[in-house]
Amino acid sequence: MATTTDMIKELRQLTGAGVLDCKRALDETGGDMEKAAAILRERGLAVAAKKAEREVLEGRVEAYIHPGNKLASLIEVNCETDFVARTDEFIELCHDLAMQVAAANPSYVSREDVPDSVIEAERNEYRAQIAGDPKPEHIVERVIEGKLGKFYEEKVLLEQPFIKDETKTVQQLLTEAIAKTGENIVIRRFARFTIDR
Q: CATH 3.30.479.20: which residues of the chain?
């Protein structure tokens, strides 16, 4: 199947990849849009990994105030250049991330930010919960790791399901943005404010 400009345009809108990358992916897959998108996502992950070491000195602080003014969040998202920081796509990403913080109430940006003492306390709590079960130790450890994975999914921003599309995590959203902008993007910190009754 010949690759048409409409197909390239559609794939570009879907993935945010460059025109030539879209054309190559469509040519490789014989025009299969889903396979081409998967190839571009995979390549985007490789690009994001390469860019992860680059310094991020620009960016923006984004605020989200929920209707009713009783819940708000602030988030600092950094990128490499002020040019990218001023693009509509980056501003939308920052807004979505601020909404994520307000809605999902994470405690940490990444797993690395979770103190060892918190992880150890969680492990001890899970071990106490299953203490009465006569399961072999390797099964107990697997259960604890599973519960710890759920803890990370709930408390770590990068591992939470994205509120606008729960088929992807916030980390996947960030990786897609890195692939689209061509720059490293880092969530530096966030704060969430609420009026409690």
A: 58-109+156-194
Tokens of 186: 């880092």
What pTM was estimated for this model as a whole? 0.72
- Cα-Cα end-to-end distance for the chain: 62
Per-residue pLDDT tens for 88-114?
Answer: 999 999 999 999 999 999 999 999 999
Cα–Cα distances in Å, from 96 out to 12, 41, 193? 21, 20, 17
pLDDT of residue 88: 94
* CATH T-level topology, domain 5-51: Helicase, Ruva Protein; domain 3 (1.10.8)
**String of DSSP letters for 68-80:** TSSEEEEEEEEES
At 164 the pLDDT is 94
DSSP H helical segments within 29-167, as ranges? 33-51, 82-85, 88-104, 116-129, 137-155
For the stretch 58-69, pLDDT in tens is 999 999 999 999
Identify whether the C-beta of residue 155 lies closer than 8 Å to the C-beta of residue 142: no
12 close to 19: Cβ distance less than 8 angstroms = yes
pLDDT digits (tens, 9 = 90+) for 142-156: 888 899 999 999 999
Specify the CATH superfamily of domain 58-109+156-194. Elongation factor Ts, dimerisation domain (3.30.479.20)
44 contacts 152 by C-beta, under 8 angstroms: no
